[in-house]
Amino acid sequence: MFRSVRHMIYDLIEWRSQILSGTLPQDELKELKKKVTAKIDYGNRILDLDLVVRDEDGNILDPEQTSTISLFRAHEIASKQVEERLQEEKSQKQNIDINRQAKFAATPSFALFVNLKNVVCKIGEDAEVLMSLYDPLESKFISENYLVRWSSCGLPKDIDRLHNLRAVFTDLGSKDLKREKISFVCQIVRVGRMELRDNNTRKLTSGLRRPFGVAGISGL
C-alpha cells in the first residue's frame, strides 16, 4: 500500500509541474487535469477516504449550488469509474502474476553453489580439479566442468583467487528436478611427467595430463 501511494504521489507531483509550467495546449491540459483527478479519486478509494464528486471538467461540485439528484448521479458515475479502475488494476496484477509464474516455470528453478576451500590430495605435481554434475542412472554428465588449476605447492595456480574459488551451476531446470539422483563429481587430473618415479632427465616429460583420482557425492 505504501509503495502504491508513493508512486501515485510521484505521478501527481510530476503532473502538477507540467500544469504549472503553462506550456501545455488547452486540449492536453484538459486531459492532464482529468488524469490528475482520476488518480486522486483512485487514491482516496484504496485508502478508504471519502469520494469527491466532480463535474465533467474535474472541478469539485458545490453542494450548495448543485441539486441532490445531480450530486447523486455524479457520485454514481465517479464510483463506477473508480471501481472500473480497481478492476483494471486487479486484472493487470493477475496478468503480471501469471506471466511471472510462466516465466519462472520456463527458466531454471534452482542452482547449486560450490565454494572450493582446499584440495587435500598428495599429488607431487600440478593438477587440474574438475567439478561437475552427473546423472548415475543415465551415466552421463549434465553440466559443464568447473575447472581449478592446482599447483604442486598445494595452492591454486592463480594465487589471486585464493579463498575465492566459487562457482554456481545454474543450468538446472524442471527436467533436472525430475531426475531420481544427481551426483556431484570431482575429478583430479595430474599434469606433468609420465611417471612420478621417472627422475631420468633425458627421458623427463612435462605437461602430460594423466587421470589421478575421483570423488563424488550422490543423492543431491
Notes on the protein architecture:
It holds the Pfam family DOCK_N. It comes from Phainopepla nitens. Residues 72-99 form a coiled coil. GO terms for molecular function: guanyl-nucleotide exchange factor activity; small GTPase binding. The structure is a single chain. By secondary structure, the chain is an alpha+beta fold. It has four helices and seven strands. Helix content is 38%, strand content 24%. Strands 2, 3, 4, 6 and 7 form a five-stranded antiparallel beta sheet that branches. The chain has a two-stranded antiparallel ribbon with strand order 1-5. A hairpin with a 4-residue loop joins strand 2 and strand 3. It folds into two domains: 1-105, Substrate Binding Domain Of Dnak, Chain:A, Domain 2 (Up-down Bundle), CATH 1.20.1270; 110-218, no CATH class. The relative contact order is 0.10.
Descriptive keywords:
Substrate Binding Domain Of Dnak, Chain:A, Domain 2, 2 domains, 4 helices, 7 strands, elongated, DOCK1 protein, guanyl-nucleotide exchange factor activity
Count of runs of 4 or more consecutive helical residues: 4
Structural class by helix and strand composition: alpha+beta
Helical content band = 25-40%
Mean pLDDT: 81
Task: For the record, give the distance between the C-alpha atoms at the N and C termini, rounded to a whole number.
Answer: 41 Å
